[in-house]
Amino acid sequence: MQINARPALRRETERMESDLNAMDAPGTPPCPSCRQPMIFKRAVPRFAALPELRTYECKACGITFTAAIEPGEHADVA
Q: Rounded to whole angstroms, how far apart are CA atoms 26 and 76?
């Protein structure tokens, strides 16, 4: 009986983590591969004429995506 409970618990934990990650940052882009919400990982502040860079990661696929945020551009990436 305990053997069957573990996979169910693991699935529930993964679902809860996915729900929390989706709420991590409003406007995070969907993964181009699996369409799951990506998680904000880091930002590089803008410097001189260069834009701010924001990096997002998909936990499901491991894909990373970096977006350039130009000055005056809306910060949300959707």
A: 7
The DSSP string of 30-48 is BPTTT-PBPEEEEEE--BT
Q: Say how far apart CA 36 and CA 40 lie, in whole Å.
A: 13
CB 3: neighbour CB atoms within 10 A? 6
Distances (CA, A) of 60 to 17, 39, 51, 52, 65: 11, 11, 28, 26, 14
| Tens-binned pLDDT, residue by residue, of the chain (78 aa) | 345 556 666 666 565 555 444 444 557 889 989 999 999 999 999 988 899 999 999 999 999 989 898 876 555 554
CB 21 within 8 A of CB 30: no
Degrees to nearest 5, angle at CA 63 with 43 and 60: 110
Give the residue extent of every domain in the chain: 2-69
